[in-house]
Write a structure and sequence with these properties.
Length: 320
């Protein structure tokens, strides 16, 4: 019955994400078996076309209960409108130029206040059997927002295996620096390499994700392949892409946007509708794909129940 209904939909309208969102609505309604078969068929047909999702589906991804049930943005939206200054400052530059970055082989240096220092591949850090799908709200400091189905593992699980020592108070991250493949790095839009950091309790928070996939597929280069950070209660720039170094530190590490403009961008960068950016209000956001900045931004991007206690007693205007 469901299959017949799907046949009524013109193929041109069956985008992977509409299948995806419909499947989620059906799943919520409880029609698990029939819809699973339907969705599989459509995925297969869609990927045979080869136009929309070139990457292979990641195997064995478990759905996380920590996902929001809001509808996800489309694959085209999420891979066609990006910030990745290593490829230029335009929102379409990453989609155009990120293919020039070579992600194979890929090595991540782990150093600083940590037991298991060394150079790791993505596979060394993340086992396929650990992969979870986490659908998170996303809020950029420039006020656009999105709902994104990431695939990854909690950073805390990776850190636990690397064994931070008792002086490890922060985790610092660094992006690939390769100007011959990242044309934006031939200019000075930011100081390169891009660097970011989290306090240890933030890094160990169960919501903090190391992502390797999007929509069940390996990350496209423009979204931070092969491995990036996702911190859903912070402005987007904390979620550093294409990570080549994870360093455990005693002191608060420098961060790219704070280096660029300390008054406008603090270390914490928690989404906060009550604290304006010096040049614009943060009260509202524009959902990606829409024209209007008409959606109310939520404290900690809607994750206050889970994360607010980490900042109890802190002046969030001063520590912005
Ligand atoms: N290395 C690196 N990481 C980065 C950026 C960047 O320019 N370079 N931009 C940040 C900003 S400002 C945002 S909003 C998000 C955008 O992620 P998305 O393109 O996957 O939506 O990536 C963040 N991570
Ligand atoms: Mo951003």
């Amino acid at each position: 019955m469901l299959i017949k209904k799907a046949g009524d939909i013109p193929a041109s309208e069956i985008t992977p994400e509409s299948v995806y969102n419909n499947r989620r609505h059906f799943l919520r309604a409880g029609a698990v078996g029939a819809v699973g078969a339907l969705a599989g068929g459509l995925w297969a047909r869609e990927s045979l076309g080869g136009t929309v999702m070139p990457q292979d589906e990641l195997p064995g991804v478990v759905k996380s209960p920590l996902s929001t049930d809001e509808d996800t943005n489309s694959w085209e939206q999420l891979t066609g409108y990006n910030n990745f200054y290593e490829f230029g400052t335009g929102k379409d530059d990453p989609a155009r130029y990120a293919h020039e970055m070579n992600t194979d082989p890929w090595s991540i240096k782990v150093d600083g206040n940590v037991g298991k220092k060394g150079d790791y591949s993505v596979d060394d850090l993340i086992k396929p059997s650990q992969l979870e799908e986490r659908i998170y709200r996303f809020r950029c400091v420039e006020a656009w927002s999105a709902v994104i189905p990431w695939v990854g593992v909690p950073l805390k699980d990776v850190l636990a295996r690397l064994q931070p020592d008792s002086d490890a108070n922060y985790v610092a991250f660094e992006t690939l620096h390769r100007p011959d493949e990242m044309r934006g790095q031939r200019g000075r839009a930011l100081r390169w390499p891009y660097v970011e950091g989290l306090r240890m309790d933030e890094a160990m928070h169960p919501l903090t994700l190391l992502a390797v996939g999007l929509y069940g597929r390996a990350l496209p280069n423009q979204n931070g392949a092969p491995i990036r950070l996702v911190v859903p209660w912070k402005y987007g720039y904390k979620s550093i892409k294409s990570i080549v170094r994870i360093k455990l530190t005693k002191d608060e590490p420098p961060t790219s946007w704070n280096i660029a403009n300390a008054r406008e961008y603090g270390f914490y960068s928690n989404v906060n509708p009550e604290v304006s950016h010096p040049r614009w209000s943060q009260e509202y956001e524009r959902p990606l794909g829409g024209f209007l900045k008409n959606k109310k931004t939520l404290m900690f991007n809607g994750y206050a129940d889970q994360v607010a206690s980490m900042y109890a007693g802190m002046d969030l205007a001063r520590f912005h």
